[in-house]
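Structure tokens please, single chain.
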Amino acid sequence: MTHHFDAAGTAALSRRLATALAPIEEGRASASPSFDESAFLADLAAQDFANPRPLEEVEDWVIRAFASGNVQMTHPGYVGLFNPAPFEAARRADLIAAGFNPQLAVRSHAIAAAEVEAHVVRAWTRRIGWGEGADGHFTSGGAEANATALQAALMHVAPQIAEEGMAAIAEPRFYISAESHLAWLKIAHQAGLGRRAVVLVPTDGVGRMDAKALADVIAGDRAAGRTPLMIAATAGTTNAGAVDPLHACADIAARERLWLHVDAAWGGALLASNRLRDTLDGIARADSVTLDAHKWLGATMGTGMFLTAHPEHLAKAFNVATSYMPSADAGVDPYLNGYQWSRRALGLRLYMVMAQLGWDGLAAHVEQAVARCDKLAARLEAEGWVRRNGKAMAVACMVPPDGGAEVATIVERVIASGQAWLSLARFEGEPVLRFCLTNGLTDEAAIERIAAAILEAAQL
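Here you go.
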């Protein structure tokens, strides 16, 4: 065993990994039926770490397990959740980050890595439409970024909480649409607000937050002596890609002196496209934005961003003084501006993707996904299916024609076939077959295979 970089061993692993990944595109999107979970668990349990093993043997065991015992996100038929095949640039960034292993708690320990991340963050704040002074940081994903937004909102509305705790305010509330990602419930719990602090605002029938209902519920909370904190609009709902009325939400937030956060975890990728970015019109009026590069920008998992026009609130929420840290500059050192302390160089993944592709390349990636999603939806519509959601993003919620199998049965059959992995969802209370084409490997041939698998599965 060595702590030194083993170029030969890494090269050999890369070859074996490439050999294992190559058949996936022609294989199954879902876990292999030949995967014996009981045998795998027994084998794993028998590994008591009492005796060392050759590293190559361990690597091969892991590769075999991952190749058959996981849903295959790198398969062209994976059109399910938001974690598809990454760009090669992001994979290589992970290798570089692991090789140097920089510590991003303080800038002085990792000047190059910290500045690369800051450069990428500022590029996206400009893309949103914010001016100088906007900032942010990389996170483990959307949940952490959204939790950070809540802390910023608390400092905006009730900064005394930093010292006095939640007892300093009466019945805090924040507002999300009924179609929002319900990680917000966990966030409220973890922050000590309690889950009742999360107010689910009704939607308008097409998946967007109802602005009038939002205004009414805020007024009702104020009348009842509660403390409204934040409006958390969604720009790209998980199920249907709906975008809440951002301008209306911004008007209400300004009138009520609330923090406006926009959860654009996957929909924010549209900012890369000059042709499609108008879908997010109004996002520049937000105080903060969540964007996950691992959802639609080709980064590997765990590449989230929290972006804000008012970074001074982060120092209020997360600042701490310690004697053992080499510096404590709230405007510079990452550990003073977010939840994490020791942290991996996450932003290198997105930097390398952006550096290789440029904005035009990212735009082409995003636009191609929307076009191919529309093509797959149209293929089904030609057979009598109905698309329930709008066409703003690369996701479609489809309902089959009468006389065939139920939606849940269709989804189950498609996944069992191995041709694709898609999901069963609900849109405005109705069960729908949902597919999302943020996977850059889903080409024209894959679209035809997925359509054929869906239509076959729909037959009685």
